[in-house]
Design brief:
The structure holds 2 protein chains of 2 kinds. Chain A contains 14 helices and 4 strands. Chain A is mainly α. In chain A, α12 crosses α14. The longest helix of chain A is centred in the last third of the chain and has 31 residues. Chain B is mainly α. Chain B is globular. The chains are: A mainly alpha, B mainly alpha. At the A-B interface, α7 and α14 of A face α7 and α14 of B.
Chain lengths: 363, 356
């Protein structure tokens, strides 16, 4: 009897440790991968830290925009590509009007809002018609919307849409150039308040907006709407029976996500400084989703902490993999392809595990 | 009584499907484009030849969707796994210095073997993720294609036709088949009729594949596979091993994808490596959906009609768009049309089945 107690305690500790390891297997694995990669990349620490600060500042917002639909049971919202497009439409307009600085940036946030709400609403309706298939629908929707986006900006701008600006249009006068210089809003938010600490440049305003978003999301899930998101996410049928308009709540969740993605894309673009008209938005969904999953989130569970941790690990991997590839395999290209493989692979594995667990739960 | 009711219950949607709006709209649009092409005085003979070629070269890739849809795993968004196998087989045939039909049939045989191995593993995966095959398949395809990029970079190929001439690393991005098996099928028994060149060999090859598929679907295995696809619970309760026949469907689909890309490449004249196969699945999926298939039901006829309509539209749209508006429009139309079609299929309400 005497020996039983400590043993049971020990087994409890062991069990909880095992649970911790299993639950956080993905972030732990990627931490190890990042450590090994950093060792082989042999980058100076200061450079690495500065780079990771820049990337955290510009990508976190986009990754966090995925959280609400996950908790509302819609899975990973690949449709945030449409939010990114809304942001780009706004930034193109602001650049055309030649309004720069923080005014231009805030104006573009405002302008993106109606587009993002509209896109989010339409996406939500689509997701409601494809329940259980939201993720593949969102992915295909992203491709589809990209086609429409190209149609508008390659063929309508300068013809149907009156647009006269030789710096932004192609030489034929029809269609937007492949790259648009965003010098007006470049660093508009980042340089608002920049603090140097021990040689590290920290864009305080950008991080402040990310913190604000995190707090807002925390607050949101304390409100009635937030509770509705959760109950719809836990069980659609139970929520329906208890008087929640499930379809409406789902649409609201998608609208939130799309609007946040639009603003996230604006933060991203003001940091980059050039808009790759036909490319900047394409990979937004994949990279944001991969980052969130690497942080340990699943298709049905995600937290702000996981989003931030995931952004950190994913982008650390992004910085080091070409050099690590070069030093380990003798080819930077291998590292490049490897990180793309990691992005896709982690999504594939996460989705497969989720589907697997669902089947196990049912049987 | 009971049986009759289920029969009419199946027939009405089938009728609606067979003449659904998308096909009517696309056919009308196609005819309008044809007339416009004639008005613009474009060479109609060349357009028709090119439609036939593209129909033949894409047909098998679209045919690959049938076993996967009919066995209940949905459209095979992971067909790029098969495509990659076909590319490996084709590069092997060049590495072994084969030429002509020998090179082509060697590539077909090796791709079928590789495809069945990969398809088996992929099928095991799909059996564990029932209900999410499309999403998991898409990302499995994406990750395997990007992993294969590393392979193309590192693989120890020696043939000077495939590696960079001045010491670059890995294989070239596109490999020309000019001295290998470029158009061996297209030109086999090819002849001209009123200015239209008929790619006889290519069409015969496609016809053989269709015939084999037709026969297969009527064998005992094929019937069991259909039963599994249309109602897995019923099939299981009547003693059919559901997982086994889903596996059969996936293997077959992957093999057809592998063979399909070899046929595609011989017609196109180039092997496209690296990221080229990334988005190919979506166009194959869209083709069969345009033909009237749903994500749960597909026929050989739908595959053929869909491939024809889709390719014809692209072939005719390209020069018309170039004349009328601007270049590049055809590519944009292709993206909008194919993904719009997939979205339409995903949102369609369908009765019964487990997929969803």
């Amino acid at each position: 009897m005497k020996t039983l107690l400590p043993e049971s305690v020990r087994s409890k500790v062991e069990a909880s440790l095992a649970r911790f390891l299993i639950r956080n297997a993905v972030p732990i694995l990627f931490t190890v991968l990042c450590l090994v990669g950093s060792y082989y990349a042999r980058l100076p620490l200061k450079f690495l830290l500065n780079d990771i600060i820049v990337r955290m500042a510009r990508n976190s917002f986009l990754v966090i925009s995925l959280i609400i639909p996950v908790l509302a049971g819609l899975g990973l919202n690949f449709g945030i590509v449409l939010g990114a497009m809304a942001g780009q439409i706004a930034v193109i307009t602001v650049t055309y009007w030649e309004i720069g600085g923080i005014t231009g940036f805030l104006l573009s946030m405002l302008l993106a809002l109606p587009y993002a709400i509209l896109f989010g609403w339409l996406t939500g309706i689509l997701f409601n018609r494809a329940k259980g298939k939201e993720m593949i629908a969102g992915l295909i929707l992203g491709f589809f919307a990209n086609g429409l986006y190209q149609l508008v900006f390659l063929f309508f701008v300068g013809t149907i849409i009156p647009f006269r600006n030789e710096y932004m249009l192609l030489s034929t006068g029809i269609g937007l150039r492949n790259t648009v210089n965003l010098k007006g809003v470049h660093y508009a938010l980042d340089n608002l308040l920049k603090v140097g600490v021990m040689g590290l440049n920290i864009p305080v305003a950008t991080f402040a907006s990310i913190v604000l978003l995190c707090l807002a999301i925390r607050f949101l899930f304390k409100t009635k709407l937030g509770q509705e998101f959760r109950s719809v996410g836990q069980n659609r049928y139970v929520a329906e029976v208890s008087g929640i308009n499930v379809d409406r709540v789902r649409i609201i969740a998608v609208i939130f996500s799309t609007v946040l993605a639009a603003w996230g894309q604006l933060i991203f673009l003001q940091n980059i400084g050039t808009l790759n008209t036909y490319g900047s938005h394409v990979q937004v969904g994949t990279f944001a989703v991969a980052a969130l999953l690497i942080g340990g989130a699943t298709v049905s569970r995600a937290t702000v902490g996981q989003a931030l941790l995931g952004t950190f690990l994913f982008h650390l991997l992004f910085i080091i993999s070409p050099l690590a590839g070069k030093n380990m395999m003798g080819s930077a290209q291998v590292g490049e392809y490897f990180r793309v493989f990691v992005a896709y692979g982690v999504i594939g594995v996460a989705l497969a595990l989720h589907a697997w667990q669902n089947i196990a739960k049912k049987s | 009584m009971e049986q009759r009711r289920t029969q009419t219950g199946l027939n009405i949607p089938a009728l609606v499907q067979s003449a659904g709006y998308p096909r009517l709209i696309i056919t009308a649009f196609l005819l309008a484009l044809m007339v416009y092409a004639a008005v613009l005085d474009l060479p109609i003979g060349q357009l028709v030849s090119s439609i036939l070629v593209r129909f033949g070269m894409n047909g098998i890739l679209v045919l690959a969707m049938i076993p996967s849809i009919q066995s209940g795993t949905g459209p095979n968004f992971g067909i790029s796994l098969g495509i990659v196998c076909g590319l490996v087989a084709a590069t092997l045939s060049i590495e072994l210095d084969l030429v002509g039909l020998a090179a082509f049939f060697f590539a077909v045989a090796v791709s079928a073997i590789l495809g069945s191995l990969v398809g088996y593993v992929y099928g095991l995966l799909l059996n564990r993720v029932k209900g999410q095959e499309m999403t998991v398949g898409t990302y499995t395809g994406f990750s395997v294609v990007s992993l294969m990029c590393v392979f193309w970079l590192m693989a120890p190929y020696k043939s000077p036709e495939m590696i960079w001439p001045y010491g670059g690393e890995g294989l070239r991005v596109t490999i020309t088949l000019q001295n290998r098996f470029d158009k061996v099928l297209n030109e086999l028994l090819a002849f001209d009729v009123v200015g239209v060149r008929i790619p006889t060999g290519l069409l015969i090859f496609l016809a053989i594949c269709c015939a084999l598929m037709w026969v297969f679907l009527r064998t005992k295995t094929g019937m069991a596979m259909l039963a599994v696809g249309s109602n897995p619970r019923f099939a299981a309760s009547s003693g059919i091993n559901v997982d086994k026949f889903r596996l059969v469907g996936t293997v077959l689909s992957t093999v057809l994808g592998a063979v399909g890309i070899v046929v595609y490449a011989q017609s196109y004249g180039f092997l496209q490596l690296y990221t080229a196969p990334l988005y190919m699945p979506f166009f194959a999926v869209a083709s069969i959906l345009i033909g009237g298939a749903s994500i749960k039901h597909a026929t050989i006829m739908q595959a053929l009609v869909g491939t024809f309509l889709f390719q014809a539209l692209l072939v005719v749209a390209l020069p018309v768009a170039n004349e009328a508006i601007a270049n590049n429009l055809s590519e944009v139309i292709r993206i909008i049309l194919s993904n719009g079609m997939i979205l339409y299929a995903l949102t369609r309400k369908e009765a019964g089945g487990d997929l969803g």
